[in-house]
Amino acid sequence: MILKTENVVKRFGGLVAVDHVSLGVNEGDIFGIIGPNGAGKTTLINVITGFYQLDGGSVEFKGKDITGFKPSRLCHMGMVRTFQIVNPFPDMTVLENVKVGSLFGNEDSKEDPEEKAERMLDFIGFELPRKTLAAHLNSNQLKYLELARALATDCDVLIMDELAAGLTPGELPDLCNLIRKIRDTGVTVIIIEHVMKLIMEVCERIAVLHYGEKIAEGSKDDVANDARVIEAYLGEEYAV
Ligand SMILES: Nc1ncnc2c1ncn2[C@@H]1O[C@H](COP(=O)(O)OP(=O)(O)OP(=O)(O)O)[C@@H](O)[C@H]1O
Ligand SMILES: [Mg+2]
């Protein structure tokens, strides 16, 4: 397993936002994390990636205990994430924003950072001119910009928080293909999503959170047919 959490706890005052969550992600998988609003998905990612300090438990990455490691250190080790609320450098161009990722993530890389940034933007199919200021992008374009920036760090694990929110149904197939394409380059992909069509289409394994607790983890079929998951989140639509 490339990433493992063991009894991870995160509290905000009296609220247990993540409640003893243990899960494991296999290398090369596309792994989904789902659950209702406020279930603790983003908080779990914030804890795993070092944006929040955890209140209990441990996290392992590539066989190493990384509990409490800072995001920058984890990025150098190959774990990177995108944000549900996107936060680019608004006064920098598209290309410059992605170049930040290539400069920061891989100091050892022989590739020219700017060429790498170009390559990543091409890879994800970013359509706008590279000189466009980030401030001029709409929210979907910003999400894709952030994805290119994350990929430019040469990550082994990419965690995406609600990339599909705001896309039209017609745009979903392209995103599914892109997620598979990213995985096929050797990146383990973790996606947090409410868009079940995307989750069911691309994920090998899924974990379900509910009020901070993991209520299920397994294959698509396991999860879609799990009585607690149906009650808490999915309804009957995905059961077979
Ligand atoms: N920084 C914070 N301070 C206090 N409470 C927080 C903070 N971040 C999250 N919470 C609370 O923790 C709980 C889990 O929130 P979180 O954002 O992780 O949920 P989520 O599953 O990502 O939801 P959504 O699907 O809406 O993005 C919620 O009750 C939320 O209000
Ligand atoms: Mg969230």
Structure description:
By secondary structure, this protein is an alpha/beta fold. The chain has a domain at 1-76 and 197-240: Rossmann fold, CATH 3.40.50.300. The protein is 35% helix and 25% strand. It contains nine helices and ten strands. A six-stranded mixed beta sheet has the order 6-7-8-3-9-10, sandwiched between helices. Strands 2-1-4-5 form a four-stranded antiparallel beta sheet, covered by helices on one side. Helix 3 (94-105) packs across helix 4, helix 4 (113-124) packs across helix 5 and helix 6 packs parallel to helix 7 (196-202). The two termini are 29 Å apart. 42% of the residues are buried. The model has no long low-confidence stretch (mean pLDDT 93).
Compact description:
The chain has 240 residues and is α/β, with parallel strands linked by helices. It has a domain at 1-76 and 197-240: Rossmann fold, CATH 3.40.50.300. The protein has 9 helices and 10 strands.
